[in-house]
Design goal:
The complex is a heterodimer of chains A (295) and B (243). Helices cover 71% and strands 2% of the residues of chain A. Chain A has 295 residues and is an all-alpha fold. Chain A has one domain: ABC transporter involved in vitamin B12 uptake, BtuC (Orthogonal Bundle), CATH 1.10.3470. In chain A, strands 1-2 form a two-stranded antiparallel ribbon. In chain A, strand 1 and strand 2 form a beta hairpin. In chain A, helix 1 packs antiparallel against helix 10 and helix 3 runs antiparallel to helix 8. Chain A is globular and about 65 Å long. With 243 residues, chain B is α/β, with parallel strands linked by helices. Chain B has a single domain, classed as P-loop containing nucleotide triphosphate hydrolases (Rossmann fold). Chain B contains 9 helices and 10 strands. In chain B, the strands form 2 sheets. In chain B, strands 6-7-8-3-9-10 form a 6-stranded mixed β-sheet, with helices on both faces. A 4-stranded antiparallel β-sheet of chain B has the order 2-1-4-5, with helices on one face. The radius of gyration of chain B is 17 Å and the shape is globular. The N terminus of chain B is likely disordered. At the A-B interface, helix 6 and helix 7 of A face helix 2 of B. Bound molecules: adenosine-5'-triphosphate and magnesium ion (MG). Adenosine-5'-triphosphate (ATP) binds next to strand 2 and helix 1 of chain B. The site of magnesium ion has 4 residues of chain B, from helix 1.
Chain lengths: 295, 243
């Protein structure tokens, strides 16, 4: 096989694939953040901790109930989403009309508590989680080896992201959501139970995080730290894409994953900082983010 | 102080507001507002800027939540209800600022409010009333002209089946032709049995559509003028409105 720019194709495509996988997690997580920020005006710092909780729920389901990956993929988002709704009703609701800073502090505190609880029980070591048998192995595509599970992660994330985008931008329910993001008072005066919609939206955003957590479980180890490491990068993605933009978070999430992967090939030293460099540049040129509307 | 209206038999009364007080935080804005509206009637609230007309409509709708007193509608006091419940009872507001949604196109804006009752106006009828809207369905809501946005804001609440409409200055800032078009619409709605509370600065316009006028000053109704007396009470009216 010929080399591209002096790089063996296996290496190049391998890194692009790794980038896509990371990008898939960035996209699903920043999408949840965008949906939550749009309607609740809260920068949900607990998102990483809830992603981690999602992975742990999968692990619990398997270890204690013998329920495998596919059940976890379904149940973990439901369980974590329900937990999110309880958090919204009992805590977030109280600060709904205050400055962003309060939401940030509250959710940051929640993140620390949730992580602390898990660390207390599991230490900082990771728990292994097996790839489901159906998705074990891989395919040799000639120019690279494609593990089935990784292909699945990218495909499942894409489907979830596009499905969410479709619901928000193209359906009646989505029009309620977009309208309530702009003017919740008026939407409620049309007869829509906006407080309930807010609770469900938070639950949905958080369920997306849990879904990502289950997807991640077989790739990374299930550890209390897994969310904290990821969430900082995801916030950079959100800033680059434009706070609250649905399409922005999806495109930016996948795009930056690939950028990161390519950086690993061509200039590995910068691979862990490239996203923050992009963020700085975007903030200088377009402070509202690539897809953001100027405030 | 209360409107010196002859008592209306309760069966014909669509809405009765009694001793209504409302606040924005610490500031007390409505001071014992009182008026009533008959089934099928068009009444206006007239008054100077800041008199409390918009606040009255928002208090009825439940948007201003800090309120006390009685707002009797359909056998219930609306004061204890949230705005979504009030909307479901068949009251709809067309707000002063129009509140057209920028992230929704015209069609989505039009279809946004859920139907609260059977018998809402059909889209064909709405497009007959406002042909401009039919041509602009795919445009972004806020790309419409001011007049078109006002038509959209009115059209939007006609679909829902609500029979009790609160219209806050629908003619504000619009060209005379469009004001006439809105006047025709209001008269048509009245002929179809809608009950309407209209806030207006333009009392000449108000006189062409309304049955009675309530004069609002400092968060109270200080006078009521039946529309057929408005001719020989011009001077009083001018005094109230400072025009
Ligand atoms: N959101 C608010 N917060 C605090 N005060 C308000 C608010 N909205 C209105 N007010 C005050 O309440 C009073 C009544 O206002 P309102 O909007 O009801 O008057 P209006 O009769 O509709 O006037 P206009 O003819 O100018 O629309 C005014 O003194 C106004 O300054
Ligand atoms: Mg007003």
């Amino acid at each position: 096989m010929t080399e591209l720019l002096g790089i063996p194709p296996q290496v190049l495509f391998g890194q692009v694939l790794l980038g896509l996988i990371n990008g898939a997690f960035y996209a699903v997580l920043s999408l949840g953040l965008a949906v939550i920020f749009g309607l609740l005006n809260i920068i949900n710092f607990a998102h990483g901790a809830l992603y981690m909780t999602g992975a742990f729920v999968a692990w619990f389901l398997l270890s204690y109930l013998g329920l495998g990956y596919w059940w976890a993929l379904l149940l973990s988002p439901v369980i974590v989403g329900a937990l999110g709704m309880v958090l919204e009703r009992t805590l977030l609701k109280r600060i709904a009309n205050l400055d962003h800073l309060y939401g940030l502090l509250l959710t940051f505190g929640l993140a620390l508590i949730i992580q602390g609880l898990f660390r207390n029980y599991f230490g900082s070591s990771g728990q292994p989680y097996q790839i489901p048998p159906l998705l074990a192995g891989g395919h040799n595509l000639g120019f690279m080896f494609l593990p089935n599970y990784r292909a699945w992660v990218v495909a499942a994330s894409l489907v979830v992201c596009l499905g969410t985008w479709f619901v928000i931008e193209r359906t009646k329910l989505g029009s309620y959501l977009r309208a309530a993001t702009e003017n919740p008072v008026m939407v409620q005066a049309f007869g829509i139970d906006v407080p309930r919609m807010v609770t469900l939206t938070y639950g949905f955003g958080v369920a997306l995080a849990a879904f990502a957590g289950v997807l991640a479980a077989p790739i990374y180890q299930v550890s209390p730290q897994m969310g904290a490491d990821l969430i900082i990068v995801v916030f950079a993605v959100v800033v680059i894409g434009g706070m609250g933009s649905i399409l922005g978070s999806i495109v930016t999430g996948f795009g930056l994953g690939i950028v990161e992967g390519l950086t690993k090939v061509f200039y590995p030293e910068a691979s862990s900082t490239v996203i923050f460099i992009v963020m700085a540049i975007v903030l200088l040129i377009k402070p509202a983010g690539l897809f953001g509307r100027a405030a | 102080m209360a409107a010196a209206a002859s008592p209306i038999p309760s069966a014909q009364r669509a809405l009765e507001v009694r001793d209504l007080h409302a606040w924005y935080g610490e500031s007390h804005v409505l001071h014992g507002m009182a008026f009533d509206v008959r089934e099928g009637e068009v009444v206006t609230l007239l008054g100077r800027n800041g008199a409390g007309k918009t606040t009255t409509l928002k208090s009825i709708m439940g948007i201003v939540r800090q309120r006390q007193g009685e707002i009797l509608f359909g056998g219930q006091n609306l004061v204890s209800l949230s705005s979504n419940k009030i909307a479901r009872m068949g009251i709809a507001l067309c707000p002063e600022e129009r509140a057209i949604f920028a992230s929704l196109n015209v069609r989505e804006n039009l279809l946004l409010p859920p139907e609260v009752r059977e018998g809402g106006m059909r889209l064909e009828t709405i497009f007959e009333l406002f042909p401009n809207l039919a041509e602009r369905l795919a445009s972004q809501g806020t790309k419409l002209s001011g007049g078109e946005q006002q038509m959209l804001a009115i059209a939007r609440i006609l679909r829902t089946g609500a029979r009790f409409l609160l219209l806050d200055e629908p003619t504000e800032g619009l060209a005379p032709v469009i004001v006439q078009q809105i006047g025709r619409t209001i008269r048509r709605l009245k002929s179809e049995g809608f009950t309407i509370v209209l806030v207006e600065q333009n009392f000449r316009f108000a006189a062409t559509v309304a049955d009675r006028h309530f004069i609002v000053e400092h968060g109270q109704v200080v006078d009521m003028i039946p529309n057929d007396e408005i001719g020989h009470r011009q001077d009083t009216l001018h005094e109230y409105l400072g025009v």
